[in-house]
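Working notes for the structural subgroup meeting. M.R. asked for a predicted model of this chain before we commit to crystallization trials. I am recording the input and output together here so anyone reviewing the notebook later can reproduce the run.

Input as submitted:
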Amino acid sequence: MHLKTFKWVLVVLLAIISNANAKPTVINLELGQDTREVLYVVPDLGVRLIFPFNLADMDPALSTTITNPVYFTVPNLTGEDGAINATILQNHLTVMVDRSSIEPLIDRMNGTLTNPLIGYLYLSTGGFNLTLELRTTLDRRQSPSNVFFQISPEKREYLISESVLRRSGAMALEYENKVASLENRAKTLALAMVGELSLKTPSVTRIRKSGTIRTGEGYVIELKAKALHQYDTFSTLQLFIINNNANAIAVKQLTLFQLDEEGSRTEISAAHRCEGIIDRFDDKECVLSTMEDAIHEAKHLLLEIDTNIGGGAVEW
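Returned structure, recorded in C-alpha cell form:
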C-alpha cells in the first residue's frame, strides 16, 4: 500500500472511530435581549433547542425563520420560504440537516465536507432576539445534541415587566379604538336624528305642568314642562327653568325618572341641552332627549334638577 493511500485510510478510520465513540452532549447558553451563537449540526442527527418557556405563549408572539431551508429545516414546521409555523410549538424545536441533500458535498476520502453549508435561524419573542449561525459538520464532537437556553432571574423579571408593559399598551390602544368607535357611532346616530328632525313632523303632547323647588338656603327655582315631542326613534321634553333669585345660577344636571303607582322610580336614560348661566330673575329653555319609550308609557314622571345653589324635583 502506498504511504499516501495509507494516510487517507488512517484519517477515515480515525474519523469513524471518533464519531462512533462520540456521545450526545449538552450545552447551556444564557438567553438575553440579543443572543448570537454558532451551532454545528450533523446531518440526520440534528440539534434540539430547549427554552425555559412555551414558545407559542409569548408576547409579542414568536416570529422566526430559517435561511437556506433547502438544507436546514425544523421537521414538519418549516415551509419552503423558511418560515416556521410556531403556533404548535411547545418549549423546544429541533434543527435538522438532510444527509441526502448534502451527499454530493461529502468527501468520503477525508471524512469532511467540500463546502460546509451555512444558514441562519432567527427567533424573536417575548422581548429577546436569538440569532444562530448554523453550520454543517460530519464531526459529532462539534455538535451538541441539546442546547438548553437559560434566563437569569434579573433578565426574567425584566422580560416579564416588558411583557406586562406591552400588554398594557395593547389594552390601552384597544380601549382607545373602542372609544373612538363608540364616538363615531354616536356621531352617526346624532346625524341620523338631525335628518329625522328635518323630515318628520313629531306628535306633540302638551304638558303645561310646573313646580317650585326651594333649596335649603332659601333659593327658589321654578320648573315648567311645556311639551313632549315624539319622533320615530326618539323623543324630546321641552321645559323652562326660571330663576327667581337675585343671584345667577348654573344647571349641573337634569335627570328624568319614571314613577310607578307605588312611587318607585326608574331613571330614564336621557341627555339634556341646558348650557350656560341663567341670570337673576331670568329663565332658560332646555330640552331633554331620550330613545326610551318609558317617557310615553309612564303614568307619572319626575324631573330632578341639580344646580350650583342646590336642587330638588318636580313630579307630574
